[in-house]
Amino acid sequence: MTDTPDTIDVLHVDDDPDFTELTATFLERVDDRIEVRAASGAAAGLDALADYDVDCIVSDYDMPATDGIEFLEAVREDHPELPFILYTGKGSEEVASDAISAGVTDYLQKGTGSEQYELLANRIRNAVEAHESHRLLTERTRRLETLIDNLPGMVYRCRNAPAWPMETVEGEVESLTGHAADDLERNEVQWGEDVVHPDDRDPVWETVQDALADDGTFETTYRIVTDDGTIRWVWERGRGVYEGDSLVALEGFITDVTERKEREERLERTTARLEALFENSPDMIDVHTDEGTILDVNKRFCEVFDQPREELLGTKVWDLDLESDPEELRDVWDGMDVGERHEVETTFERADGERFPVKVHLTRLPTDDEEERFIVISRDVSERKARERTLRRYEQMVNTMREAACIYDEEGRFDLVNERMAELYGTTPDALEGRESTLIAAIRDDADGDPYRELLDGDREELRGEIEQPIGEYGRAVLEYRLTPLVSEGSVEGVVGVTRDITDQRTREREFERTRELLERTERIADVGGWELDPDTMEVFWTAQLYELFGVDRDTEVSLETALDAYHEADRRIVADAVETALESGDPFDVEARCRGPTDEARWLRVQGVPTVENGDVVTLRGAVQDVTEQRERERQLQRAQRDASELFNGMNDSAWVIGLDERFRAVNDAAVETLGYSRSELLSMRPHDIDVGLEDGEITALIEAMPEDEMQVFETAHETADGERIPVEINSSLITYQGEPAVLSIARDISDRKQREQQLAEFASVVSHDLRNPLNVAEGRIQLAREECDSEHLEAVERMHERMNSLINDLLTLARSGTSVIEPETVELGRFLDTCWRNVATADATLRSRIDRPISGDRSRLQQLFENLFRNAVEHAGEDVTVTVGELDDGFYVEDDGPGIPPERRSEAFEMGYSTADGGTGFGLNIVERVVEEHGWEISLTEGSEGGARFEIRGVGFER
């Protein structure tokens, strides 16, 4: 069989058209499958190759413009595998070598005679067949690799030895075994010794050897142990590989069948349980066909019919069921789906003629053959029928009862109910019977043990009580129940229940009790007592709270005189007059009076009375007494607090006002009126944007909307007075509650003097940075020139003084500019930042140890001043070989050195301007550090370091993460 196609398309490229025509004629004559297309030159050949598909190219070497080798190279750019035969009349070893290097398929010299065309045709066929074979082999290899990659397991080749040493493994090797494929192929892991389960090694070996002795193919299922110790079931199929009669290897496929094996084991266990259930069921069970032929019966079926299994098998079901009709049964069977259940009550007859009632459950079984099968479970209901007859005798009597009555079965289901019980549940007796009683379930849930079972077992004669539960569609009901055993012929056959709905009665009782408790609780919470006066007898009734309020014993009989005596002597007449007026006019009253309670402390009471008038006469007078002492005190304190707040508000030197969330002034103090030059009424009709000339309307609105709930809002702006003067102010605002509504309290401090000082500082800084630094720079330059002319120790002293002056100028500029610029916090990564600050300081042989890498939020420029001054302070005071450590605190960081430190008695002076113990120190560095800390809202303290040096702790710092 050959891989040569039916047609071989050849492109012949040669600059001699007569020769290409002659070649085509001979080639097509030699092999009728060859079809030749001619091209006169390399360019034409490339064009033809772009337009047509060819199986082989035959090309001359010696052609104008482009020779055969160059043409071959051009072809190989897009067609690296296309067969290419160099067919030339000018052959040489050099041309042949170049052609081979360029990737020629074959090389042939032109000859004489027709034999050369036969040779050329043969070379063309060989080249095309080789190319096609290579293509098919590549495709087969790709398909095989794809198949192996998608197999649900592994393929292998191994030697036939007990260890099954693997030569090649492919596929899901590692997912199946946990071992790498290379480990198995290198035999670092032996399949027979390391993978196959120890208990299965000999059986597997014997199975394979028996198969090899037979037809050479084998299948086996066994266990393996994966690399992590997991046991899996695998199925293997393989065959022997022979060379002649010699077995050289085994090849096969292995896949994981653990889930299938486990399903089979579960199925076996389930089958065993079902067989045991079939044989040991207390009910009769038989299996029959759709022709009514009994195929199998259980032990209970044989016992009931008193016949051996062999006699019952093959019997028709209608021979045992007296009420069944074969045609009707077939209609029932035909109408059933697989798994569908059919129930019926009928009568069976034994061989001795005895009949008994049964309840039959019929189910259609799934089958693999055409014969349908049904399983029938039959229960002898003779005893139940007898009970039903007994119960029916009671039915008429029970239905005449006024109470809801019923009989419960052993499971707590309604077996028989009267009309009243059905009405209680909002249904009919037929619908209720057979349902589980929620009452019995609730009794069991609420009790210790099982009192219902005790009734059934005869251990309890009666069970009675009350319970609340859902009843029908009417919501919850309170039921009073009484349960007693139903005894028949000495045995308990159920439970008789009598139930009465006492929901309305208990509801009224609960409402009364709830009202009483609510009244008492209300009186205690509100410190209120109730009273009632009978105008005919002048007898007075007090509630319990009133006895406690007046400190009177509960057993005391209260009259009007006794009641009035409970009030303060000076106020007694007020209450008495109010009562007399109410009795005469029928109008209610509301007065206040004092009394002395149990502690003999004077208490203020609010006394109210409301007459009940019938036919123009007051028939009763009811009222309440409330202790309002604390209320009066709170009102007095509130008035005092309001007065104090008003005095504080108006006594402030700074302008202050309360702004509503609608951006209108609610209150202004005297300082605001005086400073702005508007009257109070004018200001109260204005809004903040009417006086603020530093902010836009939208900015004011945004500030009010962004007010923090528990923090102060601080910003600077400018206010314009009534006469047009502009005043720079610093605003401090916070949220408050004013007259019961949220508002903003703003205090405006005139910072004109501060702004003037800042301007002066700026001018001072300008003078220092320009008018002092420039002459100093000139002087330093002159020193350099002087050194070139003479060498004097005085020049070195002057240079040191210049350096000292430069340090003083730098620190003075830092101090002058501190506080004048706004802090612009950003995230600062301390790792690189500390290194940069350290390099900016002349640290000589000093060492920096950084033990903090968390980013903090701060102004980068000001932080640089802080760290550089602390580093410089350590080097100047602790020596050039000092070690400086920067570390992390819970809420900040520290900078410490291992120098001599600062004595405790001098630490309070360290941050003062001008303090320094180092030669050449300016005394400004630590003061600058303190200002940077304060600008950030942090705190700084000076203490002793872990190695005795100075330790500066900065706390309150905000870490970013």
From TrEMBL:
InterPro entries to which the protein is assigned, alphabetical: CheY-like_superfamily, HATPase_C_sf, HATPase_dom, His_kinase_dom, HisK_dim/P_dom, HisK_dim/P_sf, PAC, PAS
Ranges of residues in domain Histidine kinase: 767-955
Domain Response regulatory: start-end pairs: 9-125
Record field: catalytic activity: ATP + protein L-histidine = ADP + protein N-phospho-L-histidine
Top-level EC class as recorded in UniProt: transferase
Keyword Transferase assigned: yes
Record's keyword terms, sorted: Kinase, Phosphoprotein, Transferase
Ranges where the PAS domain occurs: 140-215, 270-331, 390-435, 511-586, 641-685
PAC domain location: 218-269, 342-393, 589-640, 708-763
Entry GO MF terms: phosphorelay sensor kinase activity
Protein name per the record: histidine kinase
Protein's organism: Halobellus limi
